[in-house]
Amino acid sequence: MTYALFLGCKIPYYLAHYGTSTRAILKALDVDCVDIEFNCCGYPTRMLDADAYLFSAARNFALAEARGLDILTPCKCCFGSLQHARHWSQEQPDLKARINRLLAEEGLHWTGTANVRHLLSVLIHDVGPDAIAAKVRRPYKGLKIAPHYGCHALRPSKVTRFDDPLAPSIFEKLIDLTGAQSVQWNKRLECCGNPLWEKNSSLSVALMNQKLADAKLSGANYLCVACTYCQIQFDAVQHLQAAQNGNGLKLASILYPQLLGMSLGCDAATLGLDQNKLDIGGIENFLDQSKSLADDGPALTRTL
Fold this sequence. Notes:
By secondary structure, this protein is α/β, with parallel strands linked by helices. It folds into 2 domains: 2-119, Glutathione S-transferase Yfyf (Class Pi), Chain A, domain 2, CATH 1.20.1050; 129-286, 3-Layer(aba) Sandwich (Rossmann fold), CATH 3.40.50.11810. 45% of the residues lie in helices and 9% in strands. The protein has helices at residues 10-14, 16-28, 50-66, 76-91, 93-103, 119-127, 129-135, 157-160, 170-177, 201-217, 228-245, 256-264, 268-271, and strands at 2-5, 32-35, 71-73, 116-118, 144-148, 181-182, 222-225, 253-255.
């Protein structure tokens, strides 16, 4: 399996460890990534200028199509943005033709053959649960994880086609494959509050704190995300609020590639465990140390 890796704009600058941990787990699972000089997904201009947005998104698709590859992104915002572009192009062929006239100036053409896949979808559908379980070397024991889906991949479901928007299950399945126990919590599908940050920061923090408190009530040891914006909110913003207000930290957030990577035996430094704003080093205490990293046999078998 080979994909064109699309990190987007925020991961390289704000969450470099999301990129390195994603590369680490894909390598461990025998998924090849090709680096292409992509541009912005277009999301910042989506509601301002339809042509500018679609041109930006379409150029990325055209670049991937030129290599005969689908796009894989760990950023749910970029995933949703690119999916919207494909959806709109199918509904408005004249708009797509107008964009292709602009792309032609670079010798590019957007046919619509390339798809965009989120990291979680690739893991569950393309790599598959059995292949992941066979690679797990140190399953977690006694670790409880609260999965946070985020908004961009789930809604609108007819556009994103990621999972059931009202009862998604992909994330729980992937968490359970590591040996950790995914927990149910009431606010798991609600917004993290990041879209309001620096616009109405008090409301943004209030939404975040309500979610963190609810997740903690579930008995979770950590929150787990697979979204750039959600991680910034739960990690950086929560850290900032705790530093400014002296509040106790409610629940640290770990990126899914970090969670999976540790169970696969990936190096903690490569996964960037020390690059999170909030300390997640304690996750290593839940690893089953009796499992050998040199063991070539399946370390975990789980029925999903």
